[in-house]
Design brief:
This protein is an alpha/beta fold. The chain is built from ten helices and eleven strands.
Amino acid sequence: MVSLLDVPLRSYPARLTIMLTESIVSRYPRVMGKFKIKLRKLALRQGLLFFFTFSMVVFLLHPGRFSSYRAFEVFHIQPDLDKLFEAATSTDAWSLSNEVCPENWVKRMQESDTILLIPYRNRKQHLNILLNYFALYFQEGFVPRVLVIEQLGDLPFNRGLLFNIGYLETNSLGNYSCLILHDVDLLPVVPVSYTCSNTPVHMSSSIDRFRYLLPYEEMTGGVLMIPRQQFLRLNGFSNRFNGWGGEDDDLYMRMRTAGLPLQRRPPDVSRYRSLYHPPQDPSPNRYKILAEFESDGLSTADYRVESLQQFSCYTHIQVRFSSG
């Protein structure tokens, strides 16, 4: 008689099941004989299930599944920038209530042709950390003008519309040829160039929460640099994405339709640290909106400015969407 153990299986649970089956069948041949084939099939199924589960776990956790992107070593924050982060988050750090910037900031900021837009609501701790961090990060050389656009009201957060408002309101702040669209929870952890380019540049292609890997080729979220005239050419962001997600992918589609190439800097000069925040509610029907791809944007932004405050380090605008 051919033993069930002669069946070539690599799964230990399957082989253990087979051994128990052989033992039971040998002791009770009349009772268990008719179940022998069924038990053999069960053992095979268990073995296949174990193998499939193990393979899926390896596939999901292995960095190689990002096959179209280069995997590279995860570096720690550079020691000097690590100290900078500690200084920015200390209790005695410069805060939003303090209107005094580092002395060498103001002049260089006034001479800058770049404005950095930060969409914001109910994240005061993150905004404090980011502004403190910038005050130390831009100690020498280039300093962009900083504009914080705060959304008031109870409507879902609309990142794309806030960037559009930021662009429209810069007309009254000065002549800026370049925009940097910057999330409030991202800090550069390597020397990142914030000087303008002649095409859109995705500056944050290497973020710690994504294991410093690019999740997908169309990603433009996080920190994006774009010349002002090209942003106008795209009609900005869509205003229809209420909640988290979708507006940056829509912007990528606009760039592709307009024939604007998206540059992406190498991982070692585009590394960012993300500040923790609870998951946000996703934008409803965001995939449907992407499929429809309408050309709303700057030309259809509907809002009103509630207040505008000029500080020496940054400008703070509070806005309310007209529908709420």
